[in-house]
Design brief:
Largest sheet: 5 strands, mixed
Mean pLDDT: 78
CATH topology: Transcription Regulator spoIIAA
Strand content: 15-25%
Low-confidence stretches: 1-49
Helix content: 25-40%
Number of helices: 5
Shape: globular
Structural class: alpha/beta
Number of strands: 7
CATH superfamily: STAS domain
Number of domains: 1
CATH architecture: 2-Layer Sandwich
Length: about 160
């Protein structure tokens, strides 16, 4: 299995270098959100607790979880997303998971933390996780923080499903 074979140029598409550097250095506002193109601290949403933040479907024995929000910024949203992701492994026992970021335009550093926790849970369960359709400006954050070395990231959902 090849890991980290995606580049910022060939991943699905619009975060300033200052914003990405802030993520890499741990800077940001008190909510962990970085300001800049693609990151903003002004993205609060009024979401009710427990609202579904992922569309889940089975494709050839693989669970595909597609984020429904363009902006993953609000702490409540991020907590809900984390709970839904973790339940795929902890409660449902899913062994092959693809996270589809095709709708995601903005992502907070707190959301990256949930992804790291998800990766640890997946590895502990001896399951497999792939990410796909990450826009170039968000992928740059994965590169700067070296998360592209941790996650198996593919350009398309089809590539992510291949051989999983």
């Amino acid at each position: 299995m090849r890991r980290g074979n995606a580049t910022a140029e060939n991943i699905c598409q619009p975060v300033t270098r200052a914003g990405m550097s802030a993520v890499a250095s741990g800077q940001g506002d008190e909510s962990g959100t970085i300001q800049g193109r693609g990151f903003t601290s002004q993205g609060k949403h009024d979401m009710s607790t427990g609202q579904r933040r992922l569309d889940i479907e089975e494709v050839g024995g693989v669970t595909v979880a597609k984020f429904v929000d363009k902006k993953i910024l609000d702490e409540t949203n991020i907590q809900n997303i984390g709970n839904q992701l973790f339940a795929l492994v902890d409660e449902d026992g899913r062994k092959k998971i693809v996270l589809d970021f095709s709708l995601v335009e903005y992502l907070s550093s707190a959301a990256l933390g949930k992804l790291i926790t998800m990766d640890k849970k997946v590895k502990a369960a001896k399951a497999k996780l792939r990410l796909c359709c990450i826009r170039p400006e968000i992928y740059e954050v994965f590169e700067i923080t070296r998360l592209n070395k941790i996650f198996d990231i593919k350009k398309t959902q089809e590539e992510a499903l291949e051989g999983l």
